[in-house]
Design a protein that fits this description.
Elements (H helix, E strand, L loop, with lengths): L1 E4 L18 H24 L4 H8 L3 H8 L7 H10 L3 E4 L3
Parallel strand pairs: 1-2
C-alpha cells in the first residue's frame, strides 16, 4: 500500500508544533492532510487485523497514543509517523506541489 503525502509546509505538526504555529493559509490543508493520515492508519491497521493495543505494543507506545492519532486528536511526530509506516507496511511517497 502506498501512502501519498504532500507536505504543505516545511514543518510536520507534532505535539511540539501545534497547528497554531503554522501560517494561516496552510492550516486548513494541513488539518485535512492529518485527517487523511489518521484514516489511512486506522484502515490499514484494521486491514492487517491489528487491534489498537497490538499496534501500540509493536510501536512501544501507549494504546491511547494510537487512539488519539487515529481520531485526529493528536498528530504524530515524523519519527512516530515513520514508525507507523514501517509497522503497517506503508510506502511513503513525497510529491512536490
Amino acid at each position: 500500500m502506498v501512502l501519498g503525502v504532500v507536505p504543505r509546509f516545511n514543518v510536520w505538526v507534532s505535539k511540539n508544533n501545534r497547528l497554531n504555529k503554522i501560517p494561516k493559509e496552510y492550516r486548513e490543508p494541513v488539518k485535512k492532510d492529518l485527517a487523511n493520515l489518521a484514516k489511512v492508519i486506522r484502515e490499514r491497521r484494521k486491514q492487517l487485523g491489528f487491534t489498537q493495543e497490538e499496534l501500540a505494543a509493536i510501536l512501544d507506545v501507549e494504546p491511547t497514543t494510537v487512539q488519539s492519532i487515529e481520531q485526529s486528536r493528536r498528530s504524530p511526530s515524523i519519527e512516530m509517523f515513520l514508525s507507523f509506516c514501517r509497522a503497517l507496511n506503508l510506502k511513503l511517497e513525497l510529491t512536490r506541489l
